[in-house]
């Protein structure tokens, strides 16, 4: 099958390499040093899915119409990346592999006749240098759209993508994006202090801040009338129960996520942008919680403070001491 991957970075590079290894005809788009490296040596994948050096067609834009496309840029780049390739994406299934709440809507707006799905991935992939990706945690990715049952298209696409790495078609994908947003409360603190996700979760104080951000995200979702979708052992009932717990008990949720992530250090996708000197996706993660809270007429002080701290790190180009993060809970 002809499969396009738009944005061959950490996750896009992983999927492109695994799909090519599974025998698909893959074309990727990339830019700058990433594109130069892929042109020169292909995509180099290592880690949880084994080693693969894969040659794929590559360029700044697609050259042909694929049968299926994955959009794998960060949220802030998705609009431009989809627009640049829109002429080849009409009428085909397009899967937006993206954290945050906006991916599907952006693609639907730009590609009115495409069949747009979303994917929430729990894989942890680190883009260690241009064209080189290391998978530090293997996991299932979840695919769907809307808030109803998983439709036939989702089941079919999950089957195709599972030839490379496990994908499951799920019901209530809209709610699952919120569940993934809760999981992505793992991103900000490591990005601020410059440590791996596992190191942050091993620290009692920092773990409490992560738990507070997660609890606040669930409370905001509840205030917005969200029914959380089931993903990675989390579901609506469990998350609502978690949101009522004191932090002393609630911190067990991020702790268990850290255990599940394994011991190979994962920086998280937000910190990886910072280490490359780029702006991050934070306005679509913790920043989305703040916007949703405003719509519900409730406050989200923990997420607002973490968003501001990540922007401070972006501006300064250097991480901040853990005390700045711990102060979030005493503000
Ligand atoms: N990494 C991970 O472990 C996980 C990531 N996610 C989510 O997946 C999405 C992708 O994240 P991730 O893979 O980490 O991001 P990366 O930044 O590693 O990869 C995105 C790639 O897209 C490229 N890109 C951006 N705009 C364009 C464009 N117009 N044309 C071509 N290429 C473009 C970027 O280039 P450049 O390098 O020049 O910016 C970058 O290489 C995010 O929403 C993230 O939150 C979800 C689960 C896990
Ligand atoms: C699941 C997790 C935390 C994996 O790193 C992720 O989604 C991210 O880094 O953005």
Q: Mind telling me which CATH architecture of the largest domain this is?
A: 3-Layer(aba) Sandwich
Quantity of strands, as a count: 12
Order of helices and strands: EHEHEEEEHEHEEEEHEHHHHHHHHHHH
Kindly provide the name of the CATH class of the largest domain. Alpha Beta
CATH superfamily of the largest domain: NAD(P)-binding Rossmann-like Domain
The number of distinct helices, counting runs of at least 4 residues, comes to: 16
Structural category: alpha/beta
The amount of helix comes to 40-55%
Biggest sheet, in brief? Answer: 8 strands, mixed
| Overall geometry | globular
Q: Report Rg.
A: 19 Å
Bound molecules: NADPH dihydro-nicotinamide-adenine-dinucleotide phosphate, ketopantoate
* Amino-to-carboxy terminus distance: 54 Å
Topology:
Elements: E1 2-6, H1 10-21, E2 25-29, H2 32-41, E3 43-47, E4 52-54, E5 57-59, E6 68-71, H3 75-85, E7 93-97, H4 103-110, E8 115-121, E9 124-129, E10 132-137, E11 141-144, H5 152-161, E12 167-169, H6 173-183, H7 188-193, H8 197-201, H9 204-223, H10 236-243, H11 247-250, H12 252-261, H13 269-275, H14 286-296, H15 301-316, H16 322-330
Parallel strand pairs: 1-2, 1-6, 2-5, 3-10, 6-7, 7-8, 11-12
Antiparallel strand pairs: 3-4, 8-11, 9-10
Bound molecules: NADPH dihydro-nicotinamide-adenine-dinucleotide phosphate and ketopantoate (KPL).
């Amino acid at each position: 099958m002809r499969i396009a991957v738009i944005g061959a970075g950490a996750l896009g590079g992983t999927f492109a390499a695994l799909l090519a290894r599974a025998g698909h005809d893959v074309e990727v788009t990339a830019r700058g040093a990433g594109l130069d490296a892929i042109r020169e040596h292909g995509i180099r994948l290592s880690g949880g899915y084994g080693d693969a050096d894969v040659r794929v067609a590559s360029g700044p834009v697609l050259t042909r119409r694929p049968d299926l496309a994955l959009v794998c840029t960060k949220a802030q780049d998705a609009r431009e990346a989809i627009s640049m390739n829109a002429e080849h994406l009409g009428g085909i299934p397009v899967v937006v592999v993206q954290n945050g709440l906006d991916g599907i809507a952006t693609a639907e707006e730009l590609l009115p006749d495409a069949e747009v799905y979303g994917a929430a991935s729990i894989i942890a992939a680190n883009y260690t240098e241009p064209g080189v990706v290391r998978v530090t945690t293997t996991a299932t990715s979840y695919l769907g759209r809307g808030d109803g049952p998983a439709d036939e298209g989702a089941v079919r696409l999950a089957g195709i993508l599972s030839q490379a790495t496990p994908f499951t078609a799920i019901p209530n994908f809209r709610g699952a994006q919120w569940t993934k947003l809760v999981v992505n409360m793992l991103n900000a603190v490591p990005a601020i202090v410059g440590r791996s996700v596992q190191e942050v979760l091993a620290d009692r104080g920092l773990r409490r801040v992560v738990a507070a951000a997660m609890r606040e995200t669930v409370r905001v979702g509840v205030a917005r009338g969200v029914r959380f979708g089931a993903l990675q052992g989390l579901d609506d009932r469990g998350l609502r129960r978690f949101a009522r717990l004191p932090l002393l008990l609630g911190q067990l949720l991020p702790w268990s996520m850290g255990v599940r992530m394994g011991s190979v250090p994962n920086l998280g996708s937000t910190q990886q942008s910072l280490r490359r000197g780029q702006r991050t996706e934070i306005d679509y993660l913790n920043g989305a919680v703040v916007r949703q809270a405003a719509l519900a007429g409730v406050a989200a002080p923990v997420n607002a403070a973490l968003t501001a701290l990540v922007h401070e790190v972006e501006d300064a180009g250097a991480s901040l001491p853990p005390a700045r993060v711990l102060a979030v809970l005493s503000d």
